[in-house]
Amino acid sequence: MLWTLLLASLCASVTALTSPLTYPNQPYMYEPGQCLCVIADNTQVHGNIRESGPPYPTQHPSNKVIATAYHGQCFMYTGFSRLWRNPQVVFDQVSFDDDGLLGWIDSSKLEIPTDGHKCPMGPKFVHRDGPFGWGARKPRREIPKRTGPWTCVVLHRTATRHCKNKQDCLQVVKEIQRYHMKEQGLADIKNNFIVGEDGRVYVGRGYNRTGAHTDGYNKCCLGITVVDSFMDRLPLPPALDAVAQVIAYGVAKNFIDPGYTLCLHNSVNPLVPCPGIAYSALVKGDSPIMLPPNPAKPYPNPYGTMAWPHFAPKCPFCPK
């Protein structure tokens, strides 16, 4: 009996020394969203995170190396750290902002950036799941993957109530997904990205999965929708900036072809007003913008009279 108790105690001690632990009650050195920069070359980034899996690895982070970071490369801290006790190393979780890709870096090789090291100004992604995600439901079935860069981008609006802060936008995006899946019988939310007027980009199907936003164009066109109707007003600047950032980031990361075509939903389907009279006029470069309820009174175009880069009145047909 004594040997059994000693053996159990020894096993418990070994487990305590070798098990990875989260420590939510320990004060963190950094705030969620803090920019952290690598201070050593050839720094390993550990993974073992499934596409729709948990926000931290279920095994030792060294089981899988997903990237190598270089000195001066900067990432956004997610707010999660993990202590591995044998050897005793603290890993900080960072976001690559690549369609939900997260990784873990040895905390001793990270620091808050100085003036010479800036985090890249990319989209403020809110991923589908994880502690800071928008709480997406799992798709009903596997969503086809997109192979190769997108050759066009289609702009949409949600035709729902607007949202100007994260709490409201989270609720709106959840409602949209629920409507698409329950009422329309789709496998998941239609769009690749949903942009709120809070300036955040809520990941729908992401860069790597085909959408269901535009009949006949889903195989080659990325769908970006902004929350609200935009019949008699323009999207707020944070939303417009976020749309531009999604496109620019996609081009930089080879998700979107540099020679992409930018289209409006109502250019593809004239029967729908999407993405709204005001938003459409802005993208086309129409000025002055004539808006209801008083069409005779021009609405000044604060973004100039030039059409957006790559805009085309018609989208090229997607190959079958």
Task: Give a verbal description of the structure.
The chain is of the alpha/beta class and 320 residues long. It has two domains: 19-117; 126-299, Peptidoglycan recognition protein-like (Lysozyme-like), CATH 3.40.80.10. The protein is built from five helices and 16 strands. The strands form four sheets. Strands 1, 2, 5, 6, 7 and 8 form a six-stranded antiparallel beta sheet that branches. Strands 9-12-11-13-10-14 form a six-stranded mixed beta sheet, sandwiched between helices.
Mean pLDDT over all positions: 76
What's the total number of strands? 16
Anisotropy-based shape: globular
Show unreliable segments. 1-27, 49-62
Biggest β-sheet description: 6 strands, antiparallel
Specify the number of helices: 5
Structural class: alpha/beta
Looking at the overall shape, the CATH architecture of the largest domain is: 3-Layer(aba) Sandwich
CA(first)-CA(last) distance: 72 Å
According to CATH, what is the topology of the largest domain?
A: Lysozyme-like
Portion of residues in beta strands equals 25-35%
Order of helices and strands: HEEEEEEEEEEHEEEHEHHEE
* Name of the CATH homologous superfamily of the largest domain: Peptidoglycan recognition protein-like
Whole-number total of structural domains: 2
